[in-house]
Design goal:
This protein is mainly alpha-helical. It folds into three domains: 7-45, no CATH class; 59-141; 145-209, Winged helix-like DNA-binding domain superfamily/Winged helix DNA-binding domain (Arc Repressor Mutant, subunit A). It has helices at 7-13, 15-18, 33-38, 42-45, 59-73, 86-96, 100-115, 125-144, 146-156, 168-175, 179-191; strands at residues 195-201, 204-209. Strands 1-2 form a two-stranded antiparallel ribbon. Strand 1 (195-201) and strand 2 (204-209) form a beta hairpin. Helix 5 runs antiparallel to helix 6 and helix 6 (86-96) packs across helix 7 (100-115). Mean pLDDT is 84; it is low at 1-6.
Length: 211
Amino acid sequence: MNQPASSPSSCGTLRDYLLLPGAHWIFVGATGVEHTVFRAYDQVGGIFPAAITLDALSPVDIRELLRLRIEHLTISGARVTVPIGPEEAAVLYRLYQGDLRNFLRLLADAAERILGVQDIRPMAVSEVLQHSAAVYARRLRAVLGDTDFEYLQSVALPMSSRGYEFRVTDATNVLEISQSSGTRLVDRLLSQRVIRQTRTEGGSVSYRPDR
């Protein structure tokens, strides 16, 4: 679900409706929605149990699900040409580390721009990456501006061996800025939704690009 600024107050208004006798509700959202929306007010938070975090699909899952989808949509006796093969899709998905939404966005955008409506063939992993890198950079620079774009690039690229994950401490070390400046940078990137929180270990929070 989306998280507009009015979401917590909206939940407060809807509290009585949520308490309908015999009603059971399932809310699905991004990591953190439990605290930013449903537990923002004690009156509402008390009626929601703890959130359950679903495990991300694995590359093997993606490969098998895509294979089954192709099989289901195949017309008997017809020749099938897919825009991306299951094996190639699994390779690309591995780069997204469980971020299914942006992975599917990548494939849809690549198919539209690389294949168009007449070029019927499977796309190679290399051409999808080549296409997406340029588009990604242009979009990111337009959203962030030159300064924060360069900051993010400087911080994330050296972390490629860690899946481009970084912490505030990494930002302060790479950019040679203060802890408070690093925190403000991460806050700006989060507010623009160009990075997302991936995990927390102790008091250390890791982030990675989200577009």
